[in-house]
User: Fold this.
Amino acid sequence: MALSPQSVSITVDTPEGFHDLPLHLPADILDAAVWELAETIWPGGTEFQRETTAIVYSDLTTALTADDVLHAAVALYETEDGAASTAHLLVRAQAVEPEAPEVVAASFQETLSFEEHRNVARVDLPCGPAVLSLHATLSLHATETEGEAVLPALEFAQVELYVPAPVRGWLIVLALATPCFADLPRYTGILRQIGESLVVRPAEQADEPPKTPAAGDVRAVFG
Assistant:
């Protein structure tokens, strides 16, 4: 039987300002969870704002669950000049050759380095080696003006962490996309912080409590 992303279980800690989407919930409680999310995002908003937000994120949550996304969140911040700064976080599991994490990380670092307009660097996380990548992407959205369809390009900055999982044969990809290029350094630091919290286990061990790190392990992580 072929493995699927449900073969691995991940946990991450997202910082304040991030709102986790309720993925992989039973249908009978999904609506309540999405409405709770809308109330969290718009605590002082109108009923229309909360209802519209709930509809949008209900559709998005359903689509991401069907696409086997393991974790998703939306970030909402206010900049110093009072403008909104937003980003979306997606965490996926990608099948790779069951090599040692060092080998997988080195392979992805080399492959990504050949792509134009992409900055790539090796980083070390508590869960093992990883590759950090920064690049820009274009998203085309069709609109209609005087009967003619036009496709304006919207640019997004994207930061990605490629983390070979301790579960051999899987790569965890954390992708943070934002249209706010000025906030890219901030979001790069946030994604690195999220990566530091990443824990990956086989799905059948998802309910087991994490092992308490030895004193030496704690010193290795926190200095």
Observations:
- Helices lie at 27-41, 47-66, 101-113, 184-197, 215-222.
- The two ends are 43 Å apart (CA to CA).
- The first strand starts at residue 8 and ends at 11.
- The chain has five helices and eleven strands.
